[in-house]
Amino acid sequence: MLFLIAWRNIWRSRSRSLVVMGAVTVGIVAVVFIIGFMNSYLDGFSANSVHYDFSHIQMHDSTYLEDEGIEYLIDDAESTIGQVASLPGVVGVSGRLRASGMMSSSGGASGVVIAGIDPEAENATTALGEKIKSGAYFEGIKRNPILVSRIVADKLGLKERSKVVLNFQDVEGNPVAASFRVVGTFSTASARFNQGWVFVRQSDLARLLGTDNQVHEVAIYLESNALLEANTAELRADFPDYASQTWIERAPAIAQVEEQTSASLGIIVGIVMLALVFGIINTMLMAVLERVHELGMLMAVGMTRRRVFAMIMLETFMLSLMGAPFGILIGTGLITYLGRVGIDFSAQADALEQFGFDAIFYPSLNPEDMITVAVAIMITALVGSIFPARRAVKLKPVEALRHV
Amino acid sequence: MNVIESIGIHKTYTETAVPVHALRGVDLTVTEGEFTAIVGPSGSGKSTLLNIIGGLDQPSEGSIRVGGTDITHMKDSELIDFRLQNIGFVFQSYNLIPVLTAKENVAFIMLLQKKSKEEREERAMHLLKALGLEGRENNRPKELSGGQQQRVAVARALASKPKFILADEPTANLDSSSTANLLDIMAKMNQEEKITFVFSTHDQRVIDRAKRVVTLEDGVIKSDVSQEKISI
Ligand SMILES: Nc1ncnc2c1ncn2[C@@H]1O[C@H](COP(=O)(O)OP(=O)(O)OP(=O)(O)O)[C@@H](O)[C@H]1O
Ligand SMILES: [Mg+2]
Predict the structure, then answer these.
(1) Which of A191-195, B72-76, B79-83 has the lowest mean pLDDT?
(2) ipTM topping 0.85
(3) What DSSP string runs through B50-93?
(4) B47 lines ligand 1 (CB under 6 A)
(5) Which domain holds residue A333?
(6) Fewer CB within 10 A of the terminal residue: chain B, N end or C end?
(7) Whether A154 and A258 share a structural domain
(8) B56 shares contact with chain A (CB less than 8 Å)
(9) What number does the ligand 1 atom closest to the CA of B50 have?
(10) Which of A8, A233, A28, A174 is nearest to B98 (CA)?
(11) Which residues of A touch B71 (CB under 8 A)?
């Protein structure tokens, strides 16, 4: 009967209860939307990170990983890459020579990572060829072409056909200086590439480094992330001398972004919950204060404080949770719809791309997210109910009865 | 048997700027089957005395026994249960839970006493019928007249099978015919079921119906007379 009383009490001031219900509904829709949006942000971030930067798997000489020493190479590159490419589910394999150095031009100098690539294989792996903003993808310049990012080009005042000089060390440790000519600029969804990578032909760099059929890094792009575990295991078995790492291991920044995102999500959810808690407390305190006489009468005739407490808690809980199904329904509906059509941020596409995002966000929800929402509502209702319930049991029957 | 024994009751309200001596040594014994009116001018201490007898408030001095149990120093939580099991209450107004029907209001007190569902249903209907409320059992308080509401309150008080029923000005908000009607029912319950009633009132017509009239003045009993003319 406590349920019945609590339920009917909610409808004593219908409009007030509807306002609380509406607030809970809106609050949940907002939280669900933010979670869905953050998911798309994270999914997009890791998808882009895989597609345009780290690929699914990278293989290096085991020692190379420690200090990226130029002398730690994967030998017999051609047959190794051929063998990797023949594994099931592999879409693209790019072998890269890598050297750290300085790039200087008449406009200034900048520290860069020089990647010696096979343009075709690189394009099949990181789609670099599709990200050209000016010039061409290794076409039109015969001798020592170099591809630079638009950011670096702007910084050093480089244009197509500008001459740059690269300074680095060869595998023996001897200093090397060589001039290259800008063949094009790129802007990709990889912040790492945008900030300081330049791409040259592998044959050009091999000549300067003094390597022969060797690479530092093999990047492997798979059909789908689902193949990640199996293919990594396979590579580890096939190439025990080399270290094969997944993108998750290679890119700790992603985990960091995930952490930051869930932290900010926590703050936003907390703010929404706090607002709801205040609304609920306010409403229920009003309800309690309107019923002082009645509560006094109930305690006078023999209703224990524990029961009064339970009654008010129950009422607050019902009131708070009534809006929840609507909120969850509308929220998931909204996310399902937006997940299909996407949210278009084309206007900010350039800025987004620099940080590794696509212009269209596809919000999504995981089952765990709904548990988060459910727990958040429960906590909100609980916190919102304690205060009014305590207020109610503090009443003294004699005084409450004198109250009109 | 004595249902109420109060000895040397003093009550001083100290929360006020000047302490108010609401009761100054009241000895009152009520035996089973009485139909007693507590009367006196406004501020004479009627409500204060009823609250103390009913275990809603504690005396500053003196002792109070209800049904042989000393409740003077009972803890708050024990008092709530004691009231539930031993005392029926009828207040001046707003006695009922507005969101429950007449029958549910009566059944509710038995629910608190953890009576079975059948007993609650059966007894609630029986009492409502006895109090002339047949056909109104599914109405909520606001759909009932003031007199009907007070009769539901009496039914609720009777439902818990208390040792006595305390009523502080039960007729204060009723018109004269409802007052007469309520008094008829209370008197009938007193005569037929031997229910003990202690009620306070200002109303001379109510005073006339009492078997015993205790008059308070300035917190002391000024007179205590038994009268014999009971009519139904
Ligand atoms: N909670 C309280 N705090 C302070 N003084 C109080 C309190 N309750 C009652 N009093 C005072 O105690 C005295 C007795 O009050 P009480 O309510 O018992 O009188 P009463 O006989 O019931 O009066 P009425 O006929 O108006 O209901 C009054 O002077 C009143 O002002
Ligand atoms: Mg009074």
Answers:
(1) A191-195
(2) yes
(3) HHHHTTSS--SEEEEEETTEE-TT--HHHHHHHHHHHEEEE-SS
(4) yes
(5) 2-50+254-402
(6) N
(7) no
(8) yes
(9) 18
(10) A8
(11) none
